[in-house]
Each structure stands twice: as structure tokens, then as C-alpha cells.
Amino acid sequence: MLFFRKKNKNKNEHSPQYYVVNDWCKEHESEINEIRNYIAMEIAQGVKPSSALLVEACVERSISMPFPYRDLLKYGRVRLFF
Q1: DSSP letters along 60-80, please?
Q2: What is the model's pTM?
């Protein structure tokens, strides 16, 4: 008899923090686009992609969020690699 386990691909998808990040991003799409553009511009200039680049983008644009900056990376709302 064979048993197959169903792997949960996105185990963070159902956490409450995922919904907080997702809701905030839906309400503030222009800020997310500014962050993505800033990161893309810096990477194009040769800056190494890192989570510090995300924090720098948020501070540079004076964007404050009700959750840690790195949650944008954790839940896939902002990617460092294009």
C-alpha cells in the first residue's frame, strides 16, 4: 500500500500575518510599485540584491507599514530578483 503526502507549498499562505500584508499591499499599490521600481533601479546600477535594499527603499521613500519590512519579501509581495 502506498501513501502519498500532500505537501503544502506555501505554508505561510494561511497565517494571519499573510492576510495583513496582502490587505495592506492591495490598499497601497502605488507604494509597492515605488519600492519595486527603486529596487529595480538599484539592481540595474549594480547594487547587490539584499533585504537591506528593501529597507533602504522604504526609508528613502518614507513608506511606513504596520508590519516589518521583510514581511514583503517573506510573503512574496516584493522580489529582489527580476
Answers
A1: HTT---SS-TTHHHHTTSS-S
A2: 0.75
> Residues with Cβ < 8 Å from 38, sequence gap 6 or more?
57, 60, 61
Please report, for residues 4, 61, 63, 67, 80, the alpha-carbon distance to residue 20 in angstroms, rounded to integers and kept in the order given: 33, 21, 16, 8, 21
Q: Where are the domains of the chain?
A: 16-75
Using the CB atoms, write b or e for 27-60: b if 16+ within 10 Å: eeeebbebbbebbeebeeeeeeeeeebbebbbee
Give 21-77 pLDDT, tens digit per residue: 999 999 999 999 999 999 999 999 999 988 899 999 999 999 998 999 889 888 888
